[in-house]
User: Fold Membrane-anchored protein from Rhizobium gallicum bv. gallicum R602sp.
Amino acid sequence: MTSKGAEEEASPTTSVPAPRVSSPAACKPETADFNSELHARPSIYFDGPAIVEQVAFMPLDGAIKEFHDSLEADGGISVRVERHTEFVTVTRVRKLDTDPERWPEPDLSEGDFARLAGLTSPLLVCHVSILVLGNPPGKLESVLNALDFGDTAASSIGGGAAQVCSDFRVRGDNSSRIILFNKDLNAHRLGRMVRRIFEIETYRSMALLGLPEARRLAPLLSGYDADLVQLTNRNLSTPAHQHKQLLEEITVLSSHIISATAETRNRFGATAAYAKIVEERIALLRETHVPGYQRFGTFVERRFKPAVRTCEATALRLEQLSRAAMHLLDLLQTRIQVEIEFQNATQIQAMADRAATQVKIQRAVESFSIIAISYYLLSLLKFIYETAVHAGFHIDPVIMLVAVPIVVGAVAITILRVKHALKAES
Assistant:
């Protein structure tokens, strides 16, 4: 049953203000729409022969303040600047009239690319040039020799729609060269395929930034291992009075390990993430074998994965060393705590023994207290008796003899009652 007031309140004619919903951009003015990430970093679409260069830089201060992309086009040249979490890439497409017989001469230096990215003296990560040509030739070796390619890896990619070749050598201008023969790729597919190849090279280079850290830590970790073994053996034989020195040395070792872990955690984590992207991009190439050549992706994986595994093993070794050092520290602290508890128990037992002795002494004193109090009371009665006799009163001496046991008994009963009363209160 509903009351009238409730019916009026629930009436559809009553206007209820709708809740106000803020957009993500309204919460923080600098925050972009979350959905824009789906459309970030699109490819540069082009067709025909072209030379495509991509240069990746890391700012010296390690901070990327802006994450938006920019694209500029001027005739047959297009430039895209992309800002990632750790690095900035500049991709430049320069169209060619015909397939060149020699590798095109570069018209921009790495300093020019850095200026396009708006950076001053950044750290070069990688410089990759892709020469996009027409259909793959019947004799691939002659074209590779003309373009100064050495031992080359080649694959058919995109389900046979293109062919990629690279010798993975870094030339004098710090660039590596790749040839892409376009057989059946339109402008959109060609742009995406070029982007995938660039991502393989760029993320591979970014992942390998962890390798120098792993090599730097290798001798340090060997020293930490030896120190840990030595401290563990000392923990078995160190007497109690030397625990403080051992505890300080274990704490110092644990601090060094934690410091090394903190210094390299982000770098090794980034290496694992970039390696995963490289594997995904290689899978997206959909490679097939070119007779007489090793596959492009296989070449990358065989020479790239050992370095990644070295970083993973170093990170795992750091984690295991940290756990072992903390475990040894816990064992030593437990041992010290047990010894402290044993010392406390010994002191408590000594206090208990002293308390028991005090109780025995107190009981002996209680007996002397009964005698002393009784003596003082009887002396007082004797003084009263003698005073009364001198005053002329005659008191039978038997009374004094009878008073002795009565006084002693009364004093003993009184002391025992007081003792029981104190026990009851406690």
